[in-house]
Amino acid sequence: MNDRAACGIRRLCSRVLASACCLAAFAGAAGPVLAQSDAGLARTPTVTRLVTAFSDLESRLDTAARTHDAEALARLLAPDFEVRSAVRPGVPVTRAQFVEQMAANASPAALIEQMAVHDLGVAAIVSFEMRYGADAAPLFVVDVWGRAGNEWQLQVRYAGLGGIRAAHPGAPAPDAANTLPKKY
Questions:
Q1: Tens digit of pLDDT for each residue in 73-97?
Q2: How far apart are CA 118 and CA 142, in angstroms?
Q3: Cα dihedral sign, 147-153-159-164
Q4: Which residues contact 181 (CB under 8 A, 6 or more apart)?
């Protein structure tokens, strides 16, 4: 066999192999698509590494405030920490007032849901819905955490009423199944 014929055979084998790989890839990709039901894929929320980390920080902060743990609060709250409320946005609650209010109120552990974290490098913006008890009104909270060396400290908290009633005070509230009454 001459060099020209051998080169042609190698090219043909290469094309057949490439075609077989493409066919296998398409067949594998089509499998899950064909296996889906008419209802579509179920949506399962994925908890990211940052959500896990900041959920832990928020839980530690809540526990430290409720149990009057001054050392933990000193690590978690920045020295110039303040709370800004939607009710009185021009009157911040200082760090000392926040600690005093948390110590004075015997509330259950905070229930935190629907957290989102935006990592900006030296700061992280963490938003979530928080309730103090299953039947309590939800608060929408935005916490701004800043880096203090290798640790995070809460710099400022923005809080206001959450849920559908806060956005639309006259709107009907969803029932336990999270459905709204129909209007015809």
A1: 999 999 999 999 988 889 999 999 9
A2: 11
A3: positive
A4: 172, 175
